[in-house]
Write a structure and sequence with these properties.
By secondary structure, the protein is an all-alpha fold. Helices cover 67% and strands 0% of the residues.
């Protein structure tokens, strides 16, 4: 938050988090995007309750059927409902996003705490290590 926002928060008696929430509510596009994200999360979490088909239910007689009232997005090459598979796929995407963010936070907080506590040579060493990794943003050393 900027200094002027902090100053305004201190003068008005509001917390910086409250000021951020008030500013967030003013932007209709932000509220719409938050609503879409919350809807997709809710959809992914309630997938077994709202989908009429099993995730891997195969029906060869329905192969490549077009969108209809029975299959809103049609079916794939094995007769599986595309919408059902899309909703269940959101679960996997949500899990990957949360786990990767959690790992990044864990590593970042740990390295930041070590760097802040020890400072000096240790801080410079950690910063050079981070610089090396940031030189290759698309470099995938895990695969």
């Amino acid at each position: 938050m900027s200094r002027t926002a902090n100053k305004a928060a201190n003068e008005s008696g509001l917390s910086p988090l409250r000021v951020a929430w008030i500013r967030f509510k003013k932007h209709k596009l932000s509220l719409f995007a938050a609503g879409v994200i919350l809807f997709l999360i809710l959809l992914a979490l309630t997938a077994p309750l709202i989908t009429p088909y099993e995730r891997d239910a195969v029906d060869p007689s329905q192969r490549f059927s077009k969108p209809s009232a029975k299959h809103w997005l049609g079916t794939d090459d094995m007769g599986r409902d595309v919408l059902t598979r899309l909703i269940y796929g959101a679960q996997a995407s949500l899990a990957v996003g949360l786990v990767s963010t959690g790992i990044s936070i864990l590593i970042g907080v740990t390295l930041g705490a070590i760097s802040g506590y020890f400072g000096g040579v240790v801080d410079n060493l950690i910063m050079r290590l981070v610089d090396i990794f940031m030189c290759f943003p698309f470099f995938s050393w895990l695969s």
